[in-house]
Write a structure and sequence with these properties.
Blueprint (H helix, E strand, L loop, with lengths): L1 H17 L9 E3 L4 E18 L5 E6 L4 E8 L2 E8 L12 E10 L4 E15 L5 E20 L6 H5 L3 E3 L3 E16 L10 E18 L3 E14 L10 E13 L3 E16 L3 E18 L8 H8 L3
Antiparallel strand pairs: 1-9, 2-3, 2-4, 2-15, 3-7, 4-5, 6-7, 7-8, 8-10, 10-11, 11-12, 12-13, 13-14, 14-15
């Protein structure tokens, strides 16, 4: 039932995204490609930080995931990607975590949204001696989404900055504000972990600033910083007792008409409520090096894509 409720909320976010408007075409433009191939090299991490209210001590539990190689295929704003883990590239030389990570980032001109479905089983931490300890029965999960409106964003292209599907021609700033809804689960089946198991709904309210700076015609630098607060939506927690949230998105790259090469970094810390003795912060981070190749004409075997463009008026 919980996943059904959150899924319906995600559908509302998706339909709001589809109603996004167009921006100032003088500051950026679309390449008009038929299809995009995007091979990438990526690293992911998911972490739970626990703060003790009594002595302000901190405990951190992180996923042990390998680096991945993958490829994505994009048609307009829709795409799918496949990736495989690279053996022996985990952060620690211990049993790797079982990790599922789905993220969808929509970079419209007047709507920016992020959808998540993540689950990690098997975390590692450090004992009092500083030695690595693996907790195979513990897991973290998050499903949810967020949607933002970039104030004064008519000249700012998120697609150019973080997806390289457009080209930014002028320096631009904007001030995004938005809301997020999440369902999170944190289970510590290992008795050694100092975590109180919890399943919660979260609401997030945030705002910040973003910029993109193109120079020398083909290079660009972009970043976004957001600060906000979160609050649990569980019925038994009626008092107002918020936690903070923090997000950074950054990109640096080189873009031409036919191809792009970029490094993109995404970091999101979300205060996930608190108990009588602890505060919880769930962090996800992704670093990616991606090569984007744009296809403008098709051989006969791929003409069906052009039929789709004509069918949807694209």
């Amino acid at each position: 039932m919980r996943f059904l409720i959150v899924s319906l909320l995600l559908c509302l976010v998706f339909f709001a995204v589809l109603r996004a408007q167009e921006g100032d075409s003088a500051a950026f433009y679309n390449f008009g490609e038929r299809l995009t191939l995007r091979p990438y090299f990526r690293g992911n991490i998911m972490a739970l930080d626990v703060q003790n209210k009594e002595d302000f001590g901190n405990s951190s539990y992180r996923s042990n995931t390998p680096l991945t190689l993958g490829v994505g295929i994009w048609w307009r704003k829709f795409g799918i990607g496949f990736s495989i883990g690279i053996p022996k590239t985990e952060l620690q030389n211990i049993t790797p975590s079982q990790y599922f990570d789905f993220q969808y980032h929509y970079y419209g001109h007047y709507i920016v949204s992020d959808l998540y479905a993540m689950r990690c089983r098997g975390l590692y931490g450090y004992d009092e001696k500083g030695e690595v300890v693996f907790y195979p029965k513990s897991y973290l999960s998050r499903i949810g989404g967020r949607i933002a409106y970039p104030i004064q964003g008519a000249r700012y292209s998120y697609a150019a900055a973080f997806e390289q599907s457009e080209l930014q021609t002028q320096t631009a700033f904007c001030y995004p504000v938005g809301v997020g809804l999440y369902y999170q689960s944190e289970l510590a089946a290992d008795p050694q972990m100092v975590v109180q198991p919890k399943n919660i709904y979260l609401a997030e309210l945030y705002g910040g600033m973003a910029f993109v700076w193109p120079w020398r015609k083909h290079y660009f630098l972009a970043a976004e910083g957001l600060l906000g607060f979160t609050h649990t939506l569980n019925r038994r927690l009626a008092t107002f007792n918020p936690s903070y949230s923090f997000e950074v998105r950054a990109a640096f790259g080189y873009t031409r008409r036919d191809w792009s090469l970029a490094f993109v970094f995404y970091y999101h810390t979300l205060g996930s409520g608190q108990s009588a003795t602890q505060r919880y912060y769930l962090t996800t981070a992704t670093g990616e090096v991606a090569f984007t190749y744009r296809i403008f004409q098709f051989y006969r075997a791929f003409r069906w894509v052009d039929w789709g463009n004509k069918l949807f008026g694209l």
